[in-house]
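seq/struct pair 1
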Amino acid sequence: MLQLFNTLTGKREPFEPIEPKTVRMYVCGVTVYDYCHIGHARSALVFDVLRRYLEYSGYAVTFVKNFTDVDDKIIKRANEQGVSCESITSKFIDAYYEDMGKLGIGRATEEPKATAHMTEIVNLTEALISKGLAYAVGGDVYFQVEKYPAYGRLSKRKLEDLQAGARVDIDERKRHPMDFALWKSSKPGEPSWPSPWGSGRPGWHIECSAMSIRLLGETFDIHGGGMDLIFPHHENEIAQSCGATGKEFARYWVHNGFVQVNQEKMSKSLGNFFTIREIFEKSEWTEAVTGEILRYFLLSTHYHGPLDFSDQGLKESKQALDGFYDLFYRLGESDLRTAADVSLGPMIERTISAFQQAMDNDLNTPVAVSELQKLRGDLNKLVQQGLSTDARRRARQAFRSLGAVLGLFQTDRWEFGSRIAECDKQISDQEVELKIAERAAAKKQKDFTRADAIRKELNALGITIEDKPDGTSRWKR
């Protein structure tokens, strides 16, 4: 049975949806004013895998992930460029789909925009005012945190401690320093919408509450996002949603950990802030970063802990994937011997069981991947002994089925008999040996540019070179 770490209770709990075999899940999406970075990629991947595993486990999943398309940062960027906010958000929504598409991250069931849900936002704000939980002042509306006694239960913070640590608030109209905006009166040059309190735009927190309640109901199963959203965003969502409906908002709160770069916090000020497209474009990361390489790397660490992003990690992920695809190619070769077939069935059953056990344990993808690695090692031995055509088909299907849960092993390299076979035809063993010798000579002359060019040339033809400690090289297709 699937267990998830619930931030709300602070412990791992069995997952029991409100309706049997039906899951309703909301995940906070991106604010679309810039290109997505590696932190966005990790969060998107975590919940893509959670959705995939729920569906693999037989659940019907309604997955909602929003776009924040009205925000101070969007307005600032639009004013800087002298364009409309809509042109900024449209550009970066398209970029989001392009980047996530490279990672194999599918679209959510619903992907609402805040600007398309102003009616729901205004109605929810009015409900909070009518219940005495919010107040209007000068065209703005604030949620009154002191009126919600459970405030702080998600982040495990006490209101008095928050007040003591709060900076002097320049808006003295607020009744408490931690009161947060539900509606903001419009300023010159800003987009605005009509409301009972005058023209304005919503606060950030109310947007997600309004959209999730509209699309998933007043109480749903899972609410997710990065750990940076626990406070104040998700804390405020709980206060305003539960305050308005009188019901629990979401039953399970799932949060992914932060991303570090070479063991330092990722930030623009440190110069280690990388967008997804930069990772694909920068050749120094590794010779060719693909979506599967980055995906494999992100899955190598448990989602709840910090992730250290590094060049070495990407290289190791590429090597691991090369090992899998090398096996897949050999599984496509014809071999009618069946001596080892009897071992295959129990081997696959053990892997499936161990894989599911790892995923049930709070989506432990590193262990799940290690189980696939064990199967790869065992199958390499069986292939040497000889497997029948049917056994090879079953082995490939096992990898494809379990790999699909993680979004791995889905590229065209599965077509072992076509693309890789074409590579084999393009260069003979003798020609490879001549290239290897030429590369060795270039390295001896310290012409490393030429040596690297030869390696890349052979790699493009499906030839992998492995340099040995004694200075010699070996190769394989």
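seq/struct pair 2
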Amino acid sequence: MSVRYISTRGGEPLSFSDAVIAGLAVDGGLFVPDSVPDVSAELDDWRGLDYASLAERVMQPYVDVPADVLKDLVSRSYSVFSRDDVVPLVSVGDLSILELFHGPTLAFKDIALQFLGNLFEHLLDVRDARLNILAATSGDTGSAAIYGVRGRSRMRIFVTYPDGRVSPMQELQMTAVDDENVFNLALQGTFDDCQAIVKAVLGDVEFKERFALGSVNSINWARVLAQVVYYFYSAFRVMEQRKAAVVDFCVPTGNFGDVYAGYVAWRMGLPIRKLVVATNENDILARFFAGSDYSRGEVQATISPSMDIQIASNFERYLFDRVGCEPARLSALMNNFASSGVLSAGSLDPAAANDPFCAGSADVTQTLETIRQVHADYGYVLDPHSAVGVHVGQAHRDPDVPMICLATAHPAKFGDAVQRAIGEQVRHPILEALHDVPRRRTVMPASEDAVRQVIFEHAGR
């Protein structure tokens, strides 16, 4: 029997399918599995599997869809990637770069959102239902979500993003889509404003049910689950190549979803020694893991805009473990943080002795220098988010343990930053084809009422 899903803030457990459709729990909490399977005894059997087959094995204990349906969903989700191995590994000096950007929007979000789009369609067909998706994006989630659900008759998607705070190419990928079920809302604020509005709207149970609202943000457990797979896949290959018993990962992150997936893999028994959290100047996560300082600051605009976040929503899932999985304690902690902007480390149980997390950060100068140096030394071009990871990963590198750095986007998506670093443009045909396409977006205040009005006008009941 598959696991059940509980809210970090309490409530009755739900099935996987119900938790996926709901996205966010009615009490404002995030869904987490009530148990995490230990697959240590199965690792040897999984090592030689191709990506799709491994995805089936990793996901199966968590889902309630039949095995043949899961197989079809996985197969269709990854058939649209340009690489047969889906997430290839590239050696750059002593580091292994895991390229997660070979999907239709050239970002790691495709790996989860292609699967989630197909999963949503299956669940809605079974229930003869419709879904209105509300999302917040700092750049890549929006385009990947749009490409995952565009043209699907049972779904509409409303994507909020901070106007002027995503890269031009990220915005182009979203706004060049002309399907009638896609709505791009450029809010005059920060990503944290977008995320807070989405959580507030989804937290209004009556409004949510009236308009059949769901989420594709990384608050949706299915997003995290799909990302767990590539930790197993890459670790198996690097450990085999290096004849190693353990592996380290460095993960550029803003919302803590990608690195939280690595934490789940570690809990399942994958031999991860370190999970290095890499941030830019918006370093709230790095400060926490370096010295337990989790205090909200002003969002700084950088050349790695997908990480320009001060409130990492997925961090709540980790904090839930750190308060002994007690919803009342977690609710009190989050309510206090919402009002004060500070989380007290004294409120948390001591981390386990083998907690895999450590952290570091890179500023704009260090990020540009990393792009330049890696290109000069190895002829390899990093996007600015991946460069943050490589910079921090190099600082935590142990010569006796292989390190995998996650490359989260194709460099052509951030051409201006890359050109500043190496003096030349990087292009990709998928992106070049978008330049002359008409764009559709609505610029509006960063207001919950304004977003509700758009949903009211276009979502249907």
